[in-house]
Task: structure prediction
Amino acid sequence: MLLSMIRFRSGCPIASALDIVGDKWSMVIIRSMVVGATSYSDFLSTPERIATNILAERLRRLEEAGLIRQTQARHGSARGAYALTTKGAALIPALQALARWGEDQLPDRWAAPDRFYAARPADFDGNLDVAPAP
Result:
């Protein structure tokens, strides 16, 4: 799903962004990455309980859209790890605004952790904590 392969519904930037991240899982995966998730098992352990087949598909789509990249597995892990790209990290302010809206407008929601609100796109630019996968 390279950007050139996506069939956008219209030229509207909101509709086009939603064509990429508008499903119910993509932003949850990116949110998890902002607070430190990097592995397949990290994503599976979130409170939303994403199914493995859905997770695999969303990770593939996010990678093809250039929002995340696969990196080498952590020591002792059979699966690769994932990191936000600069393009993916650019979604952080939108995620933070959406979280604030949810906290303010929806009753009985838990507050996002401080590290989520402290995150900045520049924190992830050129994220080279782990080497890119071969």
Notes: Residues 92-105 form the longest helix (14 residues). The radius of gyration is 15 Å.
